[in-house]
Amino acid sequence: MYAFEGFVYALDNCPSSSQLVGDFSAMKSKGARNVITFDLCGNGDDSTYYDKVISAAGSAGINIIPLVWTLVDNGQSFSKDVIPRIQAVTKAVINNPGPVLAVALGDEPLYDNDFGSASNLAKYINQMRTDFKNAGIPNIPLSISDMAYGWQISGDISSVVDAVDFFMINNFPYFAWDAKDGGSSTSWNDFTKDITYFEGIAQGKPLLVTQTGWPSNRDEFAPNSKNIVVSLEAEQGYWNLLDSHCEDFFKSKNIGWMWRSWDESIEGWGVTSNGKDKWNFSARTTC
Q1: Which of 101, 94, 87, 88 is nearest to 136 (CA)?
Q2: Sorted alphabetically, which keywords does the UniProt record give (predicted)?
């Protein structure tokens, strides 16, 4: 797959089965083929909730990438909180692997050093692969969803490069120090620079931009550039920028992109707000 592939979908509001099916179906009507989860419902350790999420994707006819939330808050620990989350997602995928496109072990786990080291992260990726193999589903692709910067600051990353089946990329020109308008050539240059980095380490493994986007306000994450434009028009401009490079970039490199996010659970970053489209968005899935 290449070009527009789908959306990031936050679970922190614990959407019901009916809402999950409704949202996933609405995504599909907009051309989405995939959805990747973000954040967690409750403690994130309830496999039956992930059963609902995966089942909803199947009902809507969309592929899902369950993401294990590996970041810990104050008072939490890796052994007490993260390991049960890994176990919950693993169990749910084993229960219903059909709709599962892949599994992400963490959102920016290298950048946040969730596992203490790259080699320890690789160990848990390989353990999940073993668990799936033992359950009779050896072909579930595994990766992490992280930024180029997360990989660049993590020392010897060779074990993680070897462990992942493909590269899930968080690519946000919005945070660049030279960021301007969403639809600007600067945004595209910053986007492609990160892709070039991943091409250099991927050893021929596939690339998928699992998270990219541009917010319509600054409420959730402040930018780093004093010259940035943050508005609905800038968000729409960045969306259109990605779509405009379908032929010359995404098709030629066989790379897809997924937008963060579907709704305003991540304030300002959604394409919908209160169930309504923020603009009349569409993007090509072939070109």
Answers
A1: 94
A2: Carbohydrate metabolism, Cell membrane, Cell wall biogenesis/degradation, Glycoprotein, Hydrolase, Membrane, Polysaccharide degradation
The pLDDT value given to residue 148: 99
- Give bridge partners of residue 212 from the DSSP assignment: 259
Percentage of the chain beyond pLDDT 90 is 100
Largest CA distance in the chain: 53
Which domains occur in the chain, in start order? 3-277 (3.20.20.80)
Q: Which two tokens stand for residue 136?
A: 């009779």
CA dist 215 → 53, 108, 225, 262 (Å):
26, 19, 14, 12
Distance, in Å, from the CA atom of 160 to the CA atom of 112, rounded to the nearest integer, reads: 15
CA distances from 59 to 64, 68, 94, 118 (A): 11, 22, 17, 36
Q: What are phi and psi of 263, to 5 degrees?
A: -125, -170
Burial 11-22 (b: 16+ CB within 10 A, else e): beeebeeeebbe
Single-letter amino acid, residue 264: E
User: Which pTM value belongs to this model?
Assistant: 0.97
272-273 and 276-277 strand pairing = antiparallel
Instruction: Name residues whose C-beta falls within 8 Å of residue 286's C-beta, 6 or more positions apart in sequence.
Output: 3, 251
